[in-house]
Amino acid sequence: MSKKKKLLRFSDNENFPNVFQPGLVDFFDKEKGEVFKHKFAGKWRSEVFKNDNPIILELGCGKGEYSVGLGKKFPENNYIGVDIKGARIWFGAKESLDLDLKNIAFLRTRIDFIDAFFEKDEVDEIWVTFPDPQPKDEWAEKRLTSKWFVDKYKEILKKDGLIHLKTDSAFLHKNTLEVIEEQGYELIHQDDDIYKNDLENYSSIEKDILNIRTYYEGVFSKKGHLITYLKFRP
Questions:
Q1: Among all residues, which ones are annotated catalytic?
Q2: How many other C-beta atoms are found inside a 10 Å radius of the C-beta of residue 47?
Q3: pLDDT band per the 50, 70, 90 thresholds, residue 1
Q4: Within 10 A of 99 (CB to CB), how many other CB atoms are there?
Q5: Which of 49, 70, 102, 174 has the greatest CB tally within 10 Å of its CB?
Q6: What share of the chain in percent tops pLDDT 70?
Q7: With contact defined as beta carbons under 8 Å apart, do 8 and 87 qualify?
Q8: Which CATH number fits domain 3-20+36-233: 1.10.260.40, 3.40.50.1100, 3.40.50.150, 3.30.450.20?
Q9: Which DSSP category does 44 fall into?
Q10: Where would I find the beta strands (DSSP E) of 12-110?
């Protein structure tokens, strides 16, 4: 992507009503090295979506294919795509605006700070779609399904809230299963090749959800990678 295009997208994001780009100073105390609650926390339903519907996050959303896909299929829910890459978020934000989908928003921030933007029990579900598997041992905490991250999700998820992981990484799939077992999380479903039988073991609603394809899923599938899925409750 040319620098000019990237800058144009950054400019668009500044004016898109469905994109929120808080500054670090708004939720992080540099002197103390502590995260505090942002003004958005607890107010997504009342001030952004103007309804009381469930909130579902897509973490590391990239171009926001899952957020937009889910938002189209389930207008009774609110969806927030979270990513640090503004030029990628632009795609989902623009499509949502073009389609007048008012139940989709995008938050540009590092997922390390996700607990600063939501209050306890404010989030109903979390989707983690094709994240970097961070395969090196020294990067274990950087995996978006590590205990370190799940502890943050638990701060904002409602008591029976769900976490979904869809990935082409057999390593991350296996590692997440290990984390689930070690931490005593409730494993609800696992599948190491969701398209093997054309999703025949899933309900029609689950098929609709899992058939949403992200850009990276398309890339990995063409390379012959198996697409895996986990659903658990922390």
A1: 132
A2: 10
A3: low
A4: 12
A5: 70
A6: 100
A7: no
A8: 3.40.50.150
A9: I
A10: 19-20, 28-29, 34-35, 55-59, 78-83, 104-108
d(CA 10, CA 7): 5
pLDDT in tens, 159-192: 999 999 999 999 999 999 999 999 999 999 999 9
Distance CA 57, CA 79 (A): 6
Q: Are 100 and 19 in contact (CB under 8 A)?
A: no
- How many Cα atoms within 13 Å fall on the side-chain side of residue 20? 21
Which residue has 């008012």 as its token pair? Answer: 102
Helices 86-98 and 65-73 cross at an angle (nearest 10°) of 20
Phi, psi angle pair for 173, to nearest 5°: -60, -50
According to DSSP, the β-strands at 228-233 and 186-191 are antiparallel
pLDDT digits (tens, 9 = 90+) for 104-138: 999 999 999 999 999 999 999 999 999 999 999 99
Q: What is the DSSP string of 3-32?
A: HHHHHHHHHHHHH-TTEE---GGGTEETTT
pLDDT at 22 over 70: yes
Number of C-beta neighbours around residue 133 at 10 A: 20
